[in-house]
Protein: palmitoyl-protein hydrolase
Organism: Gasterosteus aculeatus aculeatus
Amino acid sequence: MNHLSQCMCGNNMSVPLLAEAVTVSGMEKETAAVIFLHGLGDSGHGWADTLTGIQLPHVKFICPHAPPIPVTLNMKSMMPAWFDLMGLSPDCQEDEAGIKKAAENIKAIIEHEVKNGIPPHRIMLGGFSQGGALSLYTALTCQHQLAGVVALSCWLPLHKSFPSGSSGQKNIPILQCHGEMDVMIPVHFGAMTAEKLKGIVNPQMITFKTYPGLSHSSSPQEMAAVKDFIEKYLPRI
């Protein structure tokens, strides 16, 4: 079945991340897509399960897997990562080349979906932690105006390159969520990111929600907010 569906939707081999991605299909004609990126050391499977819980019948969820690379933060251990991480504070050195390359790979998935009939304004990016960071960076540097970004427990990579590095899409809705007890990416880093985003896109488009008692993970309340956001900006047509 998997092989068949890949053959039917064009040649995925030209989009390396898509060939292996976990896809949660809609129950009816898919008129929208959410590309959701997992965190460091994870895979698309867990998030595909979580997103199935908030599924909308006309929306396809695509959860690609990051390739394993050596991660400096974890003593160069090989693990799934979208780009290398040197540290987790706002002034850490960043893997600029890796971030830009990863963003191009996500843009290739967007272009593939566009070619197969889902227009950019019906495509949303999302992600958790490093995946959320990449989804923000990709959306802000994409030449298309996307439907929105779901940025969970994350930050904006290469933040000093903005707003000048932005492609100028001012009206992209962004839902940023963060656990108040997050010790990996402290909530104040999320708040700084929300402030930075207000200088890049229309401030009215930014929603920053924090969750008391929540650590570096998601919760049912947070996923309910994500579902509302997706329903609002990717309505059935």
Observations:
- Residues 96-115 form the longest helix (20 residues).
- Helices lie at 2-8, 16-20, 44-52, 96-115, 130-141, 187-198, 220-233.
- The radius of gyration is 17 Å.
